[in-house]
Amino acid sequence: MHRPHIDWRHSRPFRICLLLLVMIVTLLGTLPYFISFDLIKSELSSMLEKDTQRQLTIRGDARFVLLPQPALLLDDVTLTEPSQKDIFSHADRVRVELSLWPLLFGKGTIKALDFEKPELNVIRREDGTYNFEDLLTPKSQTQELSFSLDTVHFNEAAFKLSDEFLGESIRLSRLNLTMKNLSDPKAGRLDVDGILLIGDEDRPVQWQGALSATAAMRYHEADHRLLVADLLLELEQKGGSSPELRLQDVKVSTVGNLVYGWQPLRFKGGELKLTASGQRAGQHWKGELDVPEILFSKEAISLNRLKLNVGMQSPSGQLSAKATIPTLSGMQQGLLRTDLARFEVRINSPEQNLALSFASPLELLKGSIARLPAYSLSGSYTNRNLPRGAIGLDLKGEGTLNLQAETLSLSSQGQLDKSPIKATIDVSDFVHPHYAVDVDLHKLDLSPYLPVVAAGAKTVNPDKPFDFWWLNNLDASGNLKISELVLQKLHINDISLQFAAKNRKLNLNPLAAMLYEGQLSGSLEVDANRKNASFRVQQKLANMNINALLADVFDTSRFEGRGHVDLDVSAVGNQLSDLRRTAGGNVRLLLNQGAIRGVDLEALLRTTSRQISLMNGEPTPPANSNAKTSFSELRSTLTLKHGVASNSDLDLTAGILKLNGGGTLDLNSNAIDYNMHASANPKVPELKGLAGLKLPIQLSGAINAPEYHIDYASLKEQILVKQKAAAEQQKSAAEAAAKQKKQLAAQAIANKKATDIAAKAPATKKLANPTKKPHK
Asked: Global pTM?
């Protein structure tokens, strides 16, 4: 029997039932959008305040929908901190999705949370707790509402994350965060993308970068443990940065696995490996940090087997640093410490190389302050001006590194080139560092490290340009003391100076030292910031051994004595020959108890006095290196202009002679042209014949080896003039004596005649009776 086929699509009863079902579902799904549930607002606010002491404010609508999933929709939601009015979070809209079947039985089970443009202020306190933990563990366990989260989503979120333990805060903007499949212990996943901002909210952004992260999320309910596995986080700089940071093209990549405890939320440990690269003020940096084991307990943290590699490349050189730390541990809210950390540092450039090895306990405070309480340091230093070896150093001390403030402080004592040293060095600003230095060094002998000088070769090339590479980026100030400094033949003792160097300028003031048994004090200025460097020296030298100085510096031993020099000299140029040509200023010289070697003026005067008849203008015999002219005092004031020193007030006092004169010393051509006059002491019997005469002496030739020429012809002329004057004086005296004799003879005759006349004159008569009576 054939049954008729029924087409349900054309069945009228079926079409009516289907239409009614669609209308009911549509009505149930859309009607709640037009109904305001004020009761929901008050009930949610009351329940949350009871559990957390937080105030929940819903300024917008509160609605309930059934489709596509039962959910609460809350608009303009604000939540405060516990018992405070400070806002913890705000969202334009919150969607709370509920499970359908529990809802049919009168129970609310939250399945998903969706936040639209939320703003959250998350704080990690110094004790490791978070300011949102009370929301994860509500105090009242309501029967009507429970959590079985499968998905949490933040759309266009703005987070501020503050870590009181580290003392740092960051901001996240336009953050999209999705955690899904949370109810599946094997399929949970985390996806994040957004913008990370560094800087306070009330100031311009200092740095920003695009952030993306993915990870698997595995929740183990038995031990309340959440594993964030296969984490891959990447961060790439967007735009520039503030002038303080000076960062460009920064890229950070982090991989690892992290373990969290749940209720309360605590970081338990894991492993991380971080790589970073970027530029800072023209420096290209690369770094890698490997922490293979991180352990967190309730109150302690332990980072095991840390390895750090850092490299920097710049136009002026490169830096590499390595660190190995077996264990860094401590209290979460206190110091992290290790008994032994090792560091290897290398700084290389075309001009200089520095290699250092540190071994020290390490204390790390809040992630940015590192202390080395008792380090041992060994290393070596070379530069291109010291090409023959490396200067070794072996120091012990303590130091502090502040990465946030960019400061480094080291206080050391030990040995530099096997000589005792004490030093403190403070560095600020790691891009353009300023060094504050205080060094006290016993001895520094640079001779073994200086270029080799062949025997008989010139020690200084006057046309070799000065090398001011060490001033290029130097910004430093401080004090320096060196008990003994040796530069090949030059010896300087008890150096004490204050210095300041910046913008290719160097100022040493005051500068004091013991130089060849004498005291030096004054200042020195060098300005290499211009095309032609400028120099100025203002110095006073007292009681210096002039012979030792000239022998070591100018390779001459023609002069000796105790010198007093007062000089103020300036010069411009980039090589020694320039300085000789441009030098100008004033020099006042005083020598005591000295001698001029190579000529014995006293012997010359004695010989001249005995053999005056042999003076016919012959040249001076070759200088006798053993001969010398001793003097008690030598005074001279020189005026220096364009590299030529001139004077006319030379005054030398010796036992039997006096020397006066003047002339020039040409530093450009290393030539001397000096004219002097030696006068004999008339009180010396053997030189009585030279009284009133001046012996002309000329110095000429190289400054370090002058030749002496005695002008005997001029002396002979002086003697002839003196003899002629003496003869004329003698003749005039004889004539005057004869005249006087004649006058005396005539006077005697006149006196005799007067006597004879007086004898022949009649005698005067005497009165017989002088008394006479008057006439009557």
From this structure: 0.72
